[in-house]
Design goal:
By secondary structure, the protein is an alpha+beta fold. It has three domains: 3-163, PAS domain (Beta-Lactamase, 2-Layer Sandwich); 228-310, Signal transduction histidine kinase, dimerisation/phosphotransfer (DHp) domain (Helix Hairpins), CATH 1.10.287.130; 318-487, 2-Layer Sandwich (Heat Shock Protein 90), CATH 3.30.565. The chain is built from twelve helices and twelve strands. 20% of the residues are buried.
């Protein structure tokens, strides 16, 4: 059963329950009102009859020995009413006196009625006579000298009331039926209109699956309301954007990895062929193969680290004195500059003290990566400056250079994997194109962020923001580390 049919069935079923309950309430109230009016009339007449009749006359009515008329006239008037039937009976249920209109009929007086009357309680019943006449019967005890002597029954036809109730019931049934039919039709149309975007989502997803075309999107008319279904469609389109971007990134990633591995493998294979043909191992060939092997090793190591990042691997955090760590990085950066670019000066800028919670090895890797890039892309005579400052609960670490800078169109993409501003020069310098991606992941894994400011020919500044560790948490972490050291 489809969702459209289930929604329609639930809607119509709930409406049917409400309408039937409402109809039952209306019918019950109308029935009670009509019968209540008849009961009030019968009760009033019975009490009036009992009050105007004398003791002796009531006994004669019960025994069936009363005259047809009396001096007072009230009883005779009662028996001549065109709308009321009156009947007296003794304790054994034997009819004593009846209204002339009953002729050969008698008002039922069953044992239950007599039992209630014997206990001094009146009863109200609806009975049907043999000629199908419906009567509303009021039965009450006749009490003489404090004792129940007989029974008085006053009844009136209620065929008109029953007919009105039957008409009301018919009207309610027909009305409920028409209302449910209309509700089923409207509900089906509304369900179809509401679920049409979901059908469109399904068809779009099916076409994407069949054609592998991630560029398809769910198109909604401009006038479509932004309800739950509209938000679902927008979410679906956003999901497709994300999937398409990830798919494109994956394809580019695979192509870049293949390209990065092809060059060193080609170099190694060429040198091996040269060695095999010449039968001699040339130092230049061994140096080239070792260099390419080291390059592949760095690439595989970086890929493994990014794979762990994608898998959600969490870092072990301890209290790290970031100023001391930055000093270590500064010393290593000076060594790197002396070996790779002697004309570049590495210096320290601002030197605040700050403690953060993090992985010291990963933070060192991040800062060394930024420092090494700064040294590589700074011309001779330039400078690389490392600085640390505290700002409102955050630590700011700057790695600034006076190098070649980054073009504005390339800045938004530098943290993408394998993205290079100058691909040829990057490969010559031994880069894999993954360093900044790794640096960004390390920053984010520590609850921080990595920013860049650069312009072509005007140098580059990378800024690392990390939250300062709470003093209590830092002390607790330091105590735990010292405890572990003492136990060791």
């Amino acid at each position: 059963m489809s969702i459209r049919i289930r929604l329609t069935v639930w809607y119509v079923g709930l409406l049917a329950i409400i309408l039937i309950a409402f109809a039952l309430v209306i019918y019950t109230l109308q029935e009670r009102s009509a019968l209540g009016e008849a009961d009030a009339e019968l009760q009033t007449y019975a009490r009036a009859l009992s009050s105007v009749a004398s003791r002796d006359l009531l006994i004669k009515y019960i025994n069936g020995t009363a005259p047809e008329t009396t001096a007072r006239g009230a009883p005779a008037l009662a028996f001549s009413s065109a709308q009321l039937y009156v009947q007296f009976a003794n304790l054994q249920g034997v009819i004593g006196t009846q209204a002339p209109r009953l002729q050969d009929l008698q008002i039922p007086l069953d044992q239950d009625m007599r039992d209630w009357a014997a206990r001094g309680r009146a009863t109200k019943r609806t009975v049907t006579l043999p000629d199908d006449t419906e009567l509303r019967v009021y039965t009450e005890p006749v009490v003489i000298d404090g004792m129940v002597t007989g029974y008085l029954q006053v009844a009136r036809p209620i065929s008109a009331v029953s007919e009105n109730l039957r008409r009301l019931a018919t009207l309610l049934v027909v009305g409920i039926g028409l209302a449910l039919a209309l509700a089923a039709l409207v509900g089906a149309l509304l369900a179809e209109a509401a679920l049409r975007p979901i059908d469109s989502v399904t068809q779009t997803a099916l076409r994407i699956t069949q054609t592998d075309d991630l560029s398809r999107r769910l198109l909604l008319p401009p006038s479509a309301p932004m309800d739950e279904v509209g938000r679902l469609a927008d979410t679906f389109n956003l999901m497709l954007d994300r999937i398409e971007a990830l798919f494109d990134t994956q394809q580019r990633f695979i192509a870049d990895v293949s390209h990065e591995l092809r060059t060193p493998l080609t170099t190694i294979r060429g040198n091996l062929d040269l060695i095999r043909r010449s039968g001699q191992v040339a130092p230049e060939s061994m140096t080239a193969m070792q260099s390419e092997a080291e390059r592949m090793s760095r690439l595989v190591q970086d890929l493994l680290l990014l794979a762990q990042a994608d898998a959600g691997v969490t870092l072990q955090r301890t209290a790290v004195e970031l100023d001391s760590l930055l000093l270590e990085v500064y010393r290593q950066a000076r060594v790197i500059a002396q070996q790779t670019n002697p004309g570049v000066t590495v210096r320290l800028g601002a030197e605040d003290q700050a403690t953060v919670l993090g992985d010291p090895d990963r933070l060192r890797q991040l800062l060394l990566n930024l420092s090494e890039n700064a040294v590589k892309y700074t011309p001779s005579g330039g400078a690389v400056t490392l600085g640390l400052e505290r700002h409102d609960g955050w630590v700011r670490v700057d790695v600034a250079d006076t190098g070649i800078g980054i073009p504005a169109e390339d800045v938004p993409h530098i943290f993408e994997r394998f993205y290079r501003v100058d691909k040829a020069r990057s490969r010559e310098k031994g880069g894999t194109g993954l360093g900044l991606s790794i640096a960004q992941w390390i920053a984010q894994a520590h609850g921080g962020r990595l920013e860049v400011r650069s312009a072509a020919g005007d140098g580059t500044t990378f800024t690392l923001w990390l939250p300062v560790a709470a003093p209590s948490l830092a002390r607790e972490t330091a105590l735990q580390e010292s405890g572990v050291s003492r136990r060791a």
